[in-house]
Amino acid sequence: MKTINQWILQLLLALLSLSTIGIYFYFKNQTYFEFLNWNLFLAWIPNLFALLTYLLHLRRPSLIVHVFMFIFGLGWLLFLPNAPYIITDFIHLTLLKELYITKKAWSMEYWNDFFTIFLYAWNGLLLGCSSMYMIHVVMTKHWGHILSWLLMIVTSLLSGYGILLGREYRLNSWDALLDIDIVNTLEKSIHKEAIIFCVLVGFVIFAMYTTFYLLINGIGSTRLATNRR
Prior knowledge:
InterPro entries: DUF1361. The protein is an all-alpha fold. The chain has helices at 6-27, 35-57, 63-79, 82-85, 91-95, 97-100, 108-143, 145-168, 175-178, 182-188, 192-217, and strands at residues 101-102, 105-106. Helix content is 75%, strand content 2%. The two termini are 35 Å apart.
C-alpha cells in the first residue's frame, strides 16, 4: 500500500468541505435543510479518529499507544457510517418534489439542490474512504493483507447496518453508549429486508473504497514507454 501525505489530503478535504458549505449558502432557499452541514460535520469525525489512529501507529509501540489506538479505532468504527450516510439525503428531494415542480416542470431550484446534495455526499464518501484507507494501512501493518481486506469487508457491512439504524430507526452513533433501549431497537432491525439492505449498501461502500484504493495505488496502470536515442 502506498503512503499518502495525510496533511495534504486533509487540507484538500477541508477545502472541499468549505467550498461545499459556501455553495450551500449561495443556493440556500426555503426547500433546503441545514442538517446537511451537521451531517458533514459528523462525516468528519471518523476521519479524525482514523487520523489519530494512523499517527499513533507511527510512534514507537507501547502499551499506552496500543490502548489509545484501540479506543480511537472503536470511535472510528462507531462513527464511520456517518460518512456514507449523506448519500441517503437525496431522499429529501423526493419528499419535497411538489415544491420543486412549477408548471409541470422541474424548477432550477431542484437542480441546484440536487448538485449541492451531491457535493455533500461526495464529501462524505471521500472522508469515509480516506478514513478507511488510514485504518487499512494500520491493519495491514499489524495483521497482513488478507485479514485486513476481510476486515474492510466486515467494516463495509457494519457501515451499511449503521446507515439502516440511522435512516430507518433514527439512531445516532452515540446512542450505542447512551440509549438504554438500544437492544430492543437492534432486535427489531434484524429481519430479511434489513439484511438485504445492509448487504447492498455494504457492497456499495466496499466498491467505492476499493475504487479509492486502486486509484491511490495505481493498480493496473502501466508506465508509458519512451524511445530514447
